[in-house]
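Allow me, if you will, to draw on your knowledge of protein folds for a short while. A protein sequence and the structure tokens that stand for its backbone fold form the material at issue. I would ask you to consider whether the tokens describe a fold that such a sequence might reasonably adopt. Thank you for your consideration; the sequence and its tokens are set out here:
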Amino acid sequence: MTNLERLRAALREESLEGFLITRPEDRFWVSGFSGSAGTIFVTMSQAALLTDSRYTEQAALEAPAFEIIRSSSRSDMLPNLLVNSGAARIGFDPSYATVEWFERLRRQAPGIDLVPDAAILPKLRACKSRHEIEIMARAASIADDALMSVLQNIKVGMTEREVAIELEYIMRKKGAERTAFDIIVASGKRSSMPHARATDKLIEEGDLLMIDYGAQLGGYCSDATRTVVVGRATEEQRRIYELVLEAQMAALEAIGPGKDCAWIDSVARKVIDSAGHGGDFGHTTGHGVGLAVHEKPSLSQDAAGTSLCPGHVVSVEPGVYIPGWGGVRIEDLVAITDDGYRNLTSVPKQLMEIG
């Protein structure tokens, strides 16, 4: 079943006669079109992609199953397309639509019931096909190989920014389209910031060095984190590292089809809480990854009642972050299978001392 067919089946279940798609990742998922501008309109018998003159030729090549309609803000074809489609209940994602867009379309397409539905496409995209998972596995392999190369060359006196640039260069040289996100490189006390941006700070002897990295390939993302020590690790660094590793391994042991996402989060959190560092673990245990680096499902307390199923791809990334001292995060990317999971991340997890 193609993604377009999967979407139509989901629309039937929701009693919708059509759907408007504007989010770039959703456009790509349903059509293959990778341009930065366009709107897709799908009914049970129609599939149209509206885009401007910059992308009409590209759209015809990438989305052969779709009618390509040249459109612009000055001569918008969308209202007439909706009115002439015969569809009365048309869904859209309110999380990626402005109030101005909604109100204008409602005025210009009278008689159409525009139904907000933010769940259909995230739910469909969350369950990956074997083909999608293989692309993500290749992206993860590219990123992991690049990290291992970079770790061999990190020296005291390099800047965080130099490490990030080198890692991106090697990933792209190995075939990545781009990085999946801005690479996080945080050293020393700065590693206590989970999403610290790489800066010109010099890497020093004894620093914890946290690197959160990912490659994009075929539109799909990978995501992983490793924390190393530049030089010799102290007893405290080893203690915190082993604590985070214990929490991560406990979460991995808990993962599998049918397992509740909030329960998996609680398994990792319990390990860290019991060591007195519950207040130092502020983010979720993990999140879905795919065409975007943050997708459904989430391994968090907010996801109680949501169960993992085969095809979900999630990060598993507990961490401990102590302001004024530093932080440790260990993150793998795993694909849920019929009987467990497949780990797409291959970088060793024992504490590495480098430099």
